[in-house]
Amino acid sequence: MASGGKFQVMTMTDAAAERVRELVENTDESAAGLRVGITKGGCAGMEYTMNLVEDAKPGDDVIEDKGAKLFVDPSAVLFLLGTEMDFEITKFRSGFVFKNPNEVSACGCGESVSLQAADVNELAR
User: In angstroms, what is the C-alpha Rg of the chain?
Assistant: First the structure.
């Protein structure tokens, strides 16, 4: 559950939480957590953004789980509802992976996605 008893926008796997904690602990700057958002770009239309941040901006959804802290940009909330953030290491790459029920399609390289806003009426049922 997100702070304040609100519905939690996103969840993190153990691997994702561990990686967020590592990033925060190993930065030269003072960071409190990772801000997750969405921006227009890439061949599929949208890309996930992630930046280390010192504190929440007004309107951020704050998710604290497994000792890690995520700040969700308010403009991205409807696109990220129900998303699980994971971290994986494969033979060829390592990085965060988003299992997003709002994803309509993705480009072949996996760097960008096409997203639709979550249907808030469906969530209320």
Answer: 14
